[in-house]
Amino acid sequence: MRVVIARCAARYTGRLSAHLPLATRAIMVKADGSVLLHSDGGSYKPLNWMSPPCTLRSSSVTEEAAERGVSEVWVVQHDKTDDRLEIELHEVLADTEHELGVDPGLIKDGVEAHLQELLAAQITLLGDGHTLVRREHPTAIGPVDILARDSGGASVAVEIKRRGEIDGVEQLTRYLELMNRDPLLAPVQGVFAAQEIKPQARVLAEDRGIRCVLLDYEAMRGDEDLSGRLF
Description:
The protein is α+β, with helices and mostly antiparallel strands. It has 2 domains: 2-97, Protein Yojf, Chain: A; 110-220, Trna Endonuclease, Chain: A, domain 1 (3-Layer(aba) Sandwich), CATH 3.40.1350.10. It contains 5 helices and 12 strands. The chain has a 7-stranded antiparallel sheet with strand order 4-3-2-1-7-6-5, with no helix packed on it. It has a 5-stranded mixed sheet with strand order 8-9-10-11-12, with helices on both faces. Strand 8 (131-137) and strand 9 (144-149) form a beta hairpin. It is elongated and about 65 Å long. The two termini are 40 Å apart.
């Protein structure tokens, strides 16, 4: 991972447009190709980012940009869409690289683990005719919670969270990008399942063709009637 602390400005164009004015930020360039801009506040979420597959290159600085104090421009272009992140570096305060190695992945808490177990046992809650292939289906970047097939035999990848937020949608998106490269699985549909799904996460998921499913933990445990409570 490369971490750059710099005074910078950024502009995102593509499916949406956004602008970050000049300020001091942390720029993270991860081994998977993702690029994230963080401030010193706002919890763990980046201010803006580009998910892989994408390509980062250094672009020449125009005369007009140089007059504004820009010393370098990074252009991060998504490999499959028109999404583009341009970062103008004005002053680099620190630039370090660290080899983090292979991460064992997130260890789910008891509720998420139990939700996975329950949904695997009640897989038709995703829809009539759905069948379970396996739990913890391995990918190169970690296991997807559930691999299933719908009534037509198409592959379905399910990511389960207790609380569904944007980072969970991003995680499932990365799984889907890898799984859809496998001719034995493609095309793979995505399902984002959680007890609660934040509005922003739902919008992002639906924009990416990912179906959202609300899970009723108590009902799935058999404490309540299952009918009409999942969707």
